[in-house]
Design a protein that fits this description.
By secondary structure, this protein is mainly α. It contains 10 helices and no strands.
């Protein structure tokens, strides 16, 4: 912990360390499945900054109307983006004249719908994400506001600039924190 950003050998380890520090500041631990989901969500979002520009209510409606894999992906993306907005970007909600509660409710609903759609074991994680949405949001808020948050935000900004603009300066700044090279995911959906 402390006021400096500790560099881990992999992106996964780095995010895991930041999440654990946030949990420690809160005095609360997520269970392993929820913690892992949050770590991989942060990694996925760091590689897809365009997610922040989405109109989530429309994405939700399209997802509910879609079928098969498109439905599952759309509902997961809406739940994930709502979690990120509520925990990492609550000021964006205010700028859009939307209360954070909107993202909490929409995210929970998307995860619940996804959990109801999937079969047994696969449904469990999404039902638990809906149930523990606010606890996950709290961890993200603590991550955002912690002593290493500014450096983490700088690193995320560097990734975004490197991916979106190809900025060499951003890549060099990123090299201060990691040997990882950001690679754009293009237009493909997961």
């Amino acid at each position: 912990m402390g006021g400096t950003l500790r560099i881990e050998p992999t992106a996964t380890a780095q995010w895991h360390s930041l999440v654990r520090e946030a949990e420690a500041r809160l005095g609360r631990r997520l269970d392993e499945d929820l913690e892992s989901y949050l770590v991989f969500l942060l990694m996925r979002f760091a590689g897809r900054p365009e997610l922040a520009a989405r109109v989530l209510a429309l994405d939700y409606l399209r997802g509910v109307r879609a079928g098969g894999r498109r439905r599952l992906d759309a509902l997961r993306d809406v739940g994930d983006q709502c979690l990120l907005y509520s925990g990492l970007f609550p000021r964006r909600a205010r700028r859009r004249n939307v209360r954070v509660r909107y993202f909490v409710d929409l995210g929970r609903t998307a995860y619940q719908e996804l959990g109801a759609t999937l079969q047994h074991g696969a449904a469990d994680i999404y039902l638990r994400l809906a149930e523990h949405f606010v606890a996950l949001m709290d961890v993200l808020l603590a991550l955002r506001e912690g002593p290493a948050a500014r450096e983490a935000a700088d690193a995320l900004e560097a990734v975004e600039l490197a991916l979106e603009t190809g900025s060499r300066a951003a890549r060099e700044r990123l090299a201060q924190w990691t040997d990882a090279i950001p690679v754009s995911g293009g237009e493909r959906r997961h």
